[in-house]
Amino acid sequence: MNRYLISLLIIFINIFMFAETEAALDLNKYYQFPFSIAVEYQTLTPLSNYPTLMNIYQISGNFRYSLPFFPVLQPVIGGGIIFFDSRDPQLPERFDHSHIFGSAGLIFANRFAKNFELGLELCAGFSQSYFPHLISDYGTLGSPNLSGQAGLRISLVPSFNFTIDIYPNVKYLHSLGPLSDFNGFLIGLGFSGQFRFGDDPDSLNSLIRSILFEKLSFPPVFAAMQSYYARNPITSITISNSESQAISHVQVAFFQAGYMDAPTPSIRIEKILPQEKVDIDLFGLYNQQVFTTEGITPLTGEIIVTFEYKGRTVQQKQTVNYDLYDKTSVIWNDDRKASAYITPADSALRNYSSYIRKICLPKENPGLNQALQLAIEVYYSLWEIGLIYQADPISPFMEVQGNEMAVDSINLPRETLKRLTGDCDDLSVLFCSLMESQGVETALITIPGHIFIAINTKIESSFFSKIHPSQNMTISQNGELWIPIEITLLGKKDFLSAWRNGIEEYRSYNNTPLDRGFYETKTAQQIYRPVGLRETDLGLQYGNRDNILANFSKYQNQIIDEIIKYHEAMAMKTHNKNDYNTLGVSYARFNQYEKGKSAFDKALTIDPQFIKARINIANLFYLQGNYEQAANNYKEVIQIFERQNITTSSLFCKTLINLSQSYYEINDIVTAQKYFNQAALIDNKLAEKYSFLKNSIEASEPNRSLEYSNRDYPIFFAEETDE
Q1: Cα–Cα distances in angstroms (integers) from residue 47 to residues 168, 183, 185, 200, 388, in the given order
Q2: What's the pLDDT tens digit per position in 527-545?
Q3: How are the residues of the chain apportioned to helix, strand and coil, as percentages rounded to the nearest 5?
Q4: Which CATH number applies to 211-325?
Q5: What's phi and psi for 402, nearest 5 deg?
Q6: For the structural domain made of 2-196, what CATH number should be given?
Q7: CA angle 704, 708, 713 (to 5 degrees)
Q8: What's 139's DSSP letter?
Q9: What angle do CA 636, 639, 645 make, to 5 degrees?
């Protein structure tokens, strides 16, 4: 019997493990019944030594009540007869007896699947035993007994009203009289049939349809907007309560089989009054499977409403049909959506941009903005591999922009790199992706019928001359300078022309700024996160490195020459000391130190006490590695500051920092720290920008090279804007 019992337990444990669960529905509440009656038969095996071998079986019945507020807890009362049939061959009837018993207890029953239930039962009771043949000619003897039992109920529920239970249990009997030979534990295995009263919630007669659905037109869903739908509604619907009573604890969710891991909750409403209407926003937490589709995929989703009505938990579903567009599709009702296609995390793009940066790094000029130089590198690298602009023949941007009915297509950057053609949106997201992969912030600029890009130089707006001598060649956003680039000119015109064209397009809408958009990628991607990728090796040909390097050097120098020529012309025109000083700084930044020295000397012939030119001459010594001469010159300038009693200016503070760096480079750590601390007392915020210098000084690391990753140049130049 024990072996039989263990086998049954294993079978039902497996049923429990593999049964289909209904995670979105409380089955105990949904299938709650008011009460039930059951009849049961079970066989019993004693664990203690009886006076003789016995066949023991029990016939009983019980009544269960399901607590309305907690249906898994069910009080139970029962009663029946336990028969003890002696198997003694000598006196077969002597020890025959029976127990008439009654009991009460609790059952904890959990419905873990629609057709299966598992429960625990604890009961205590009282019985009266009857021994009709124990003593010959004496009549029936008996005694009162206490009983208790604990068991496991494994229930098969083929229908709402009928269950079949298997009931392995342990029972204990204890006589309150002298007939104590049959005290002890018994192991039982019972089988019962139970009838549950109430209405089946799944039957047609009991089906509750309290919710009426309105406004069920469902728009198409776009795979590229996967992350957007998790926090922004796909659509809105209206539901109303058609009952004459309120419904409560209303929960609304949307589910799409195959493309969601679980229903996406939308809202929880405590109560909806009779005939009340409620507008509901539906959200969708789609999984990565949406990115595997191609073209248009028709889908059927479910709106799931769970609520309580008349004490019952009810679930009502409504199907909706809609289309899923693949990850290349988009509707231009919000230009920021293009940011979802900017994918700097794509390993193919990172590898390509890293290759570009690596081969051009030896030719980069520290005096020219790093973001600008990277843009030149990327521009001519794409030119080298033959990437060209080609308008979309089916849905050109100028026709679909702002049209909520027209579906456009944007290629992922990796696809554009393989095809080597793309329209304005394709090329824009590719260029932004490559720049972002190297840590340069980008933005998308839209004007009627067109989209192009901008890069952030991180230069403060007042220092536009570090980028270009004309302030009109840059865009100021949040105090920083951005460079617009008309990427569709790739393969046709040089980088400077693409830059000029971009600024002209942007400024052509100065009088109607609402007609253009400027969307920073990092901000737009907080709403439209990058699409998911299935990364594979693209097998890209990166182009001839010598051609890339030659073009980069040529057009880098073109911009440098334009900056220098502007300042040369200005100085020759005005013969102003500040213009000669600015010219000298431009020479110095671009490693033309002799020309820089001549320009500073020219400024000093105009004004021998011109402090800025003296500081910058000291800077030239520093840049050429003559740190002792630089320190001597800085000290002379400091003496001039002190004689003129202007030792609290920012320019004086910058000179102290330059002097500190000079002493650091000649391994005089004590003096370096002295001048740095003096600068920090004057302008602590400025000194904090040079924490790397402070940290190196305090660590007493005289042989360690200073790191200038957060600055354009290793030292401060004294320029016209400095005071």
Answers
A1: 15, 10, 6, 42, 89
A2: 999 987 777 777 777 888 8
A3: 35, 30, 35
A4: 2.60.40.2550
A5: 80, -5
A6: 2.40.160.20
A7: 125
A8: -
A9: 150
**What residues have CB less than 8 Å from 282, skipping those under 6 apart?**
233, 234, 235, 236, 237, 252, 254, 264, 266, 303
Task: Provide the pLDDT for residue 75.
Answer: 96
Where do the domains of the chain lie? 2-196, 211-325, 336-543, 609-698
Give the residue from 191, 38, 198, 200 showing the smallest Cα distance to 115.
200
The tokens describing 392, both together, are 């979309």
Q: What percent of the chain has pLDDT over 90?
A: 62
**Phi-psi category of 137—alpha, beta or left, where left has phi over 0 and alpha has psi -120 to 50?**
left
Question: With 70 as the cut, is the pLDDT of residue 500 above it?
Answer: yes
Name the helix (H) or strand (E) containing 489. Answer: none
Digit-coded pLDDT (tens) for 480-498:
999 999 999 999 999 999 9
Instruction: Determine whether 604 is exposed, middle or buried from the number of CB atoms within 10 Å of its CB (0-12, 13-18, 19+).
Output: middle
**Residue by residue, what is the 3-state secondary structure of 448-491?**
CCEEEEEEEEEEEHHHHHHCCCCHHHCEEECCEEEEEECHHHCC
Single-letter amino acid code for the residue at 466: K
DSSP code at position 583: H
pLDDT, residue 396, reads 57
Q: What is the pTM of this model?
A: 0.67
Q: What is the pLDDT of residue 16?
A: 45
Give pLDDT tens digits for 593-638: 999 999 999 999 999 989 999 999 999 999 999 999 999 999 999 9
CATH number of 609-698: 1.25.40.10
**In this structure, what DSSP letter does residue 95 have?**
T
Q: Which amino acid is at 276?
A: E
CA 293, CA 299: separation in Å to the nearest integer? Answer: 12
The torsion angles phi and psi of 247, rounded to 5 degrees, stand at -110, 150
Look at 22-31, 331-340, 481-490 and tell me which has the smallest mean pLDDT.
22-31
Sheet holding 312-325, edge to edge: 221-222, 312-325, 296-309, 247-255, 264-272
Whole-number pLDDT of residue 700: 64
Q: Determine the Cα–Cα distance for residues 369 and 436; give it in Å rounded to an integer.
A: 16
Locate 341 and state its tokens.
Answer: 């296609």
